[in-house]
Amino acid sequence: MNEIRSISAKQVGRDVPRLESRQKVTGRAEYTHNITLPGMLYAKLCRSTVAHGRILSIDVSAARDLPGVHAVYTGETIRTLIAEPYFGPAFHDQPILAIGKVHFVGEPIAVVLAADPYVAAEAAQMIVAEYEELPAVFDEVEAMTSAAIVHETLKPAGTFADLKHLSGKSNTNVALDYQLRRGDTDAAFAAAEHVFEHEFHTQQVMHTPLEPMVSIAEPGDNCLTIYTASQSPSFVCTEIARLFGWRENQVRVKVPYLGGGFGAKLYIKLEALVAAAAMLARRPVKLSLTMEEQFYTITKHASTFRIKSAVNKDGRITARRCEIFWNGGAFADIGPRVTQKSGFTSPGPYDIDNVSVDSYALYTNRPPAGALRGFGIPQLVWAYESHTDLLARGIGMDAVEFRRRNLLREGRPQATGTLMHDAAIIEVLDKTAELMNWTAPFERGEGVIRRGRAIAIGFKAVVAPTTSGAIVNLSADGSAALYMSTVDMGQGSDTAMAQIVAETLGLVAERVKVVHPDTDVTPYDMATLGSRSTFHMGNAVKLASLHALEQLGAMAREVGLPEGTNYEIRDIFLKKYGMQAGNIIGVGSYVPPYTSPQKGTGLSDNVTPFWMVGAAGVELSVDTETGHVTIDRLINVADVGRPLNPAIVATQLSGAAMMQLGFTLFENMDLDHGQVTNASLADYKIPGMHDLPTVMDNVIVDNNQQNGPYGAKGVGETATFGVSPAIANAIEDAVGVRLTSLPLTPESVLRGIRALRGEKLEG
Amino acid sequence: MTEVRCDIAFTLNGAPVALNIGGHENIVDVLKRLGLSGARESCGQGLCGCCTVIIDGVAESGCLTLAQLVDGRSVQTIEGLDADGALSPVQQAFIDAGALQCGFCAPGFVLMSHQLLAANPDPSEAEIRDYLSGNLCRCATYPEIIKAVRLAASRMRAAQAA
Ligand code: FES
Ligand code: FES
């Protein structure tokens, strides 16, 4: 018998329903969206109408005079409170409200506060700003050389060592130029049998969480409490303290459930503004964005990827050159991290001796871009897996066989030099091929309907190094509470972490209480992002639970109970305290080992603690008269290590794949001189019920992540990887049309079909 | 803003309420003031279903319904479904089928599923997709929602037959 374990049912690997299910189906779950504080004012923003311009004047008098308006602030007002009101995770480039100039259409230039949100909204419309327009740049490749410069000087935040060299640089839009060099690509290209070169594009899209971004600040005496729909409470705390020149313990950040995040609610977004407004007004201030405003706040990078490969006569890739341009929009947000952390995987999960990568984060005058479910990986996989299919086609080899010949295997060095471990790449490929019945003949359709199929596989290195901390409180009655700053935004982290506590302590997961992020109470966590929580927080939670268990063992020994006792937890406490009293606090903190990449070469022997692997298999039908594509079958195969909660993992896979399906087939922010012209769900379509593939399968391959908690690793992004290229590859398989820009609209398919036939489309 | 205020009285989840409202306020604003946050505004344009309320038996977008228009009528919200402390079969099926992630859309889907099953106790998958196509879930929990509706339907039919 295990000591003090009374539960034989395994807690990990069990389909525990989400702990908060009942609150969610009854409409009673707590979201920041629902919070109202006594005396609270509502904030509404006035936004820039030009993409790039010097602010000549902002006339707020009419707004200020509107009855019911409490106050109107501009960047200059903010400056009376904070001398340098610029924030951001990688660069301090984002002003709380515009100062001197505006960088994109939609940038906040003034805020109105009123007790009635409708009054605040009306007043915000009455603000009149005048600008001297400046030349603007919108395209990421043009931004490399454009005369239009978005920020006069670069202001790296200082938190990331590899950005320090950019400090004070001027006359450039390049916010980071990342390089990786391995082997001798020039020589390999010169000696190559075949050389292929392509260019791929992705469009700007938005997360559109259904709970729009929202933050509230409540001022106190030299302190602030912030209630916010944030994925990174610890970072908000640090950054607000920095802005105000305060200690971290003067800022309290509380986060309830999130109505979706997907990367939109990361780092710091509305928090600085509500904090400053609340301090100025001496009243609680709430800012709730509308769906439209979200499109002006954070988006996913548009990108251009130029990729070139050398292939020898055996179908081995001998060299690959990658040049990627990330359209970061007006503020860097986390773009420079995307540029580097994703950049080093841009050659794909292939074993290639000679690799060169140049990845550029660019400022443009578009709405800012940051992380969106994949941290840049979906943009990369889109390009390298479209390209890889073209290579196989080019040398006349089967697409699966070509990949199998080139994929990275256990123990082989990835482009950075880090040896691959616990990444089930081949297994994921083989499983996908098997599920698709790849070697069997395929029904190709007839008449106007043509069918095609294809696969794509991608991988990701989890961002490193990052830290998570957790506390487990074991009460005298044997119940446990977990204190952590991981944010449950729908991915099920509360439930998965409760399972880890329960597994380790011998409890029932459903009865573990999870205390939500509150920086006064819950320990530091880097953020809920990039599929890092299951692994990092999971390890911290396991350590905290083990720490509690160790103390419980000591307590048992102290009261004279034998080693390996099966006494209930409450009886051990009772023996020690003589009554139901006391508690045990287990603490755990986890930061994985890591080796910083060498400057210039980007090489590292330990660039990440784990790899995620995901593939998509697609069967589709193309209507050759309309260009319309029907996804008949989508298979998502993933390596998630050992799943903590298989049902939730499957939902994560299908949810991620569906989201990527929208980004693949229709989602696209239309821009006209920097103005988003479809910033609403009326004009910007997201996937609905009818967009579900006819059949969708989500499959986990058997694997064990040895350094993960109970063998688990991250999963939230994995099923996004393969979707876009698999669909583009299948379209080519069906009708011979190769599309190189997302989204893959019926119009672009039809144009391709007509072009192949030598017919012109009217208009 | 020229403020027009008015008094309204309506039935909310079976109980009478009366209050003074601004002429521009929608029913979601008013419900929020009454402490109910299950109907919630997201798109604000009648496109996502997060704000679904049932007015005189018909599902409506709360974000597009001026509160004055419910005067004298009967409004049901998600909070009415478990008024007796027990979950409705649809709510239970959503839990059992794992048909929620962030849950922001869940009240709207649950209410619409009730409407569907009241009209059609044994819907096909295609009918479910059609009926619920006006509700959006950004977490894309659609396969699980379809499963939940079928589960609820079969349980409700079984209960009926018993
Ligand atoms: S908020 Fe009413 S339908 Fe979207
Ligand atoms: S569960 Fe998140 S929007 Fe539906």
Question: What's the arrangement of secondary structure elements?
Answer:
The complex is a heterodimer of chains A (763) and B (162).
Chain A: H1 21-25, E1 41-47, E2 53-59, H2 61-65, E3 69-74, H3 75-81, E4 86-87, E5 94-95, E6 101-102, E7 108-114, H4 117-125, E8 128-133, H5 140-145, E9 174-182, H6 185-190, E10 194-202, E11 214-219, E12 224-228, H7 233-244, E13 251-254, H8 271-281, E14 285-288, H9 291-294, E15 299-300, E16 302-311, E17 317-327, H10 335-342, E18 354-362, E19 369-370, H11 377-395, H12 399-406, H13 425-435, E20 449-461, E21 468-475, E22 480-484, H14 493-505, E23 513-515, H15 533-558, H16 569-577, E24 583-590, E25 611-623, E26 629-639, H17 646-665, E27 671-672, E28 675-676, E29 695-700, H18 723-735, H19 746-756
Parallel strand pairs in A: 1-14, 12-13, 15-19, 17-18, 22-23, 26-29
Antiparallel strand pairs in A: 1-7, 2-6, 2-8, 3-7, 4-5, 9-18, 10-16, 11-12, 11-14, 16-17, 20-25, 21-22, 21-24, 25-26, 27-28
Helix pairs in contact in A: 11-18, 14-15, 15-16
Chain B: E1 5-12, E2 15-22, H1 27-33, E3 52-55, E4 58-61, E5 74-76, H2 89-96, H3 106-119, H4 125-131, H5 142-161
Helix pairs in contact in B: 2-5
Bound molecules: FE2/S2 (inorganic) cluster (2 copies).
Q: Could you explain the architecture of this structure?
A:
The complex is a heterodimer of chains A (763) and B (162). Chain A is an alpha+beta fold and 763 residues long. Helices cover 27% and strands 24% of the residues of chain A. In chain A, the strands form eight sheets. In chain A, strands 3-7-1-14-11-12-13 form a seven-stranded mixed β-sheet, sandwiched between helices. Chain A has a five-stranded mixed β-sheet with strand order 9-18-17-16-10. The relative contact order of chain A is 0.13. By secondary structure, chain B is an alpha+beta fold. Chain B is 35% helix and 17% strand. Chain B starts with a strand and ends with a helix. At the A-B interface, α1, α4 and α17 of A face α2, α3, α4 and α5 of B. One FE2/S2 (inorganic) cluster is lined by residues 41-44, 46-51, 61, 63 of chain B. One FE2/S2 (inorganic) cluster (FES) sits between chains B (100-105, 137-139, 141) and A (210, 260, 490).
